[in-house]
Amino acid sequence: MTHIVTENCSSCRFTDCVSVCPVNCFHGDADRLYIDPDLCIDCGACIPKCPVGAIVEDIDILGSPLIELNAEQAALLPVIKAKQSPLPGADARRDTLISEGLV
Ligand code: SF4
Ligand code: SF4
Question: How many CA atoms lie within 13 Å of 8's alpha carbon, on the beta-carbon side?
């Protein structure tokens, strides 16, 4: 089992998640993050840290292409270990997701 980053992470990069991950299993491109399923220990520490509800357990989205996408992208992209500055517009995007009930 593992945790999965969803599309809610796109254009955010608040990265509060990476600061609490004990095994540094977050990887990222310029837009969003992905979790390496081979390293994630399912501790759940990252879920309450994400302000846009972009991290879920794989058992809650069984069959979703997001599971394979996270594994594929994590294998290709660099590890993100430290908190970074949010992307431009991240605050507005978070507020929109909340107002639309997607968080
Ligand atoms: S805190 Fe959530 S939205 Fe922000 S980078 Fe981490 S997973 Fe993505
Ligand atoms: S569940 Fe734990 S190990 Fe897995 S990504 Fe989140 S903080 Fe890291």
Answer: 23
